[in-house]
């Protein structure tokens, strides 16, 4: 199984492709590192509903949490 994942990662990087985890990390870093962008989205949403919150992983939690930072 490790070989399959290693090959997947190699192919993904060589093709400069992004998977869901990459997209989530990039969105999180954008909000975390750019206050103006974060404030824009904070002002757009008063509430956020996270369906199936019990299944949220750490990165998904961090993404939603960064929106609430002041």
UniProtKB/TrEMBL annotation:
<protein>
    <recommendedName>
        <fullName>DNA 3'-5' helicase II</fullName>
    </recommendedName>
</protein>
<keyword id="KW-0547">Nucleotide-binding</keyword>
<dbReference type="InterPro" id="IPR013986">
    <property type="entry name" value="DExx_box_DNA_helicase_dom_sf"/>
</dbReference>
<dbReference type="InterPro" id="IPR014016">
    <property type="entry name" value="UvrD-like_ATP-bd"/>
</dbReference>
<dbReference type="GO" id="GO:0043138">
    <property type="term" value="F:3'-5' DNA helicase activity"/>
</dbReference>
<feature type="domain" description="UvrD-like helicase ATP-binding">
    <location>
        <begin position="2"/>
        <end position="69"/>
    </location>
</feature>
<dbReference type="GO" id="GO:0016787">
    <property type="term" value="F:hydrolase activity"/>
</dbReference>
<keyword id="KW-0347">Helicase</keyword>
<keyword id="KW-0238">DNA-binding</keyword>
<dbReference type="GO" id="GO:0003677">
    <property type="term" value="F:DNA binding"/>
</dbReference>
<keyword id="KW-0378">Hydrolase</keyword>
<dbReference type="Pfam" id="PF00580">
    <property type="entry name" value="UvrD-helicase"/>
</dbReference>
<dbReference type="GO" id="GO:0005524">
    <property type="term" value="F:ATP binding"/>
</dbReference>
<keyword id="KW-0067">ATP-binding</keyword>
<dbReference type="InterPro" id="IPR027417">
    <property type="entry name" value="P-loop_NTPase"/>
</dbReference>
<keyword id="KW-0614">Plasmid</keyword>
<dbReference type="InterPro" id="IPR000212">
    <property type="entry name" value="DNA_helicase_UvrD/REP"/>
</dbReference>
<dbReference type="GO" id="GO:0000725">
    <property type="term" value="P:recombinational repair"/>
</dbReference>
């Amino acid at each position: 199984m490790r070989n399959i994942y290693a090959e997947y990662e190699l192919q993904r990087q060589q093709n400069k492709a992004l998977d869901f985890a990459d997209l989530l990390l990039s969105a999180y870093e954008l909000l975390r590192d750019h206050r103006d962008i974060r404030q824009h989205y904070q002002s757009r949403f008063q509430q956020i509903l996270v369906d199936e919150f019990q299944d949220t992983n750490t990165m998904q939690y961090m993404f939603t949490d960064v929106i609430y930072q002041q």
